[in-house]
Fold:
Amino acid sequence: MRAGTGGLGPRTDGAEPGTGGRASRSDGFEPETGEFDLETGDFRCDDGEFDPETGEFTPRPGGAAGDRDTLLGAVPPAAAGPGTHSGGLASRVRSRIRGLRPRVGAAWRGGGGPRSPRHRARSENAGVRLRGVELRARASEQISLRMRVALLAAIMVGLATAGISAAAFWVVRASLFADLDTQLHQRAETVVNSGLLANPANLPAAALYGSDVRVALINAQGTLITIAHSPPPPVGEPELEVASAEHPDSLRTVSDERVLAVPTGSNGFALVLAQPLDQIRHTLGGLGVVLALVGGAGVVLAGLAGATVAGAGLRPVQRLTAATERVASTGDLRPIPVTGNDELARLTHSFNLMLGAVAAAQEQQRRLVADAGHELRTPLTSLRTNVELLVASSEPGAHALPEADRREIFDDVRGQIEELTTLVGDLVELARDDAPQAVHEPVELVDVVERSLQRAKRRAGEVRFESRLVPWTLLGDATALERAVLNLLDNAVKWSPPDGVVRVGLHPVGDGTAMLEVADGGPGIADDDLVKVFDRFYRATEDRSRPGSGLGLAIVKQVAERHGGSTRAGRSAQGGALLAVQLPGQPG
Structure:
């Protein structure tokens, strides 16, 4: 498409053919030739390019449109003729671009403008493909897995049945035609060997050898001898070639008849036998109906069997689906009954393990919340009572508290706040869901124990520490290990008498682990409490009056398990408590 037809300038009668509408104008503006692509919307000419989406015209450097003075209409007054407008060349270029923009944009965006047949065909093909994808996706969503299995089984059985039926049909057909050809050859051989055809007049007698067979004699000249009042058999070039001794025999199917031609051996004649194929066609038709019925019944039975097998196989999946829906709607985490030992049974067993883990996590969470609420209630109640007492004593007209009592209440409040702070910190440490990953950082356990001893000594009072440490290295988190060791030491200090001794030992066990033991000289742990001391919020009866949250040893157990170790409790040689942590590693 030329620019002259796109609205850049009217073509004059003096324009030369092939110039694309370019003609000299009286106003001194001569548009260059250009082209517009309806599929891409690009317009190009010698002076620049036009973008139909933005309407911007980019001049080409060095061209007429690229001359800034010319585009701005800087025409000298002397050169301005009668046809020169005050706006100059720039205003005329802009006006023609504005006139071209709606038409080009419509063609570019498909808004009613002309489009090439190739563009329309591509759009139609894209629409058809998109529609097909949507239909297939909708069909796959509406068909259940059980129905898809049944359809697959039916299709596969149908294909197998079709193949077997086709093979059986063609084998039977070939066998029937082979039997018919053998019978025709035997009859022809019997007639020829009987000598009846030495005299062509005996042809009616030869016909008695096959009442359903039409008989004729033909020689090389095409003379045909038939039986009176009997239609002749089909005769053609192959039978003439047999009569002229060019071929030993001829066997073909003509007009739904099987035609055999054999030489008679005398008189230059050939015997032609023709037998109708009605019986064979009837037999093959009945066979086709039987095969179709059997195949259809097989497809139906295969579909039913596929649906039954799929239903039985998907029954565990349905139970899993019902269980997940029950869990989502009611929160009931009861396990699903497991039957069999196949893949679906293992899947059900794995799902039950997951339900058990979720139930245990929920129970642990409920117990943590209940225990935390119980532990928080006492200090909060005491703190509230003290604060209310202070507030009441400060009101006008109220009895003022003695200074000693106020100082005692402030000390209680400070201690309760510290207790709450410790309790909240321990709760946060235990309740974290984002347990730290295994830190592959070598840790010298002796250094960890020595740092913990230094911190424990500053608040141990008159309690003394004795340590016997063997170097041991493991991969883990030094901060978490230090906190666990410090909890063990603080627990030993709390139960030791004022002048007691806390003994700390670290020695290898011999199985790739080391044992860290902390023994105190206190009253020890009752036998019934030995298995409970590392539980969350557990506190012995005689420990209720002592400060603490009941979470220190639980943190020790958690840290040990994160590092692949274990904890245990027992009695020390002095009769006190012996708390031990076993950790993997290697001698340092």
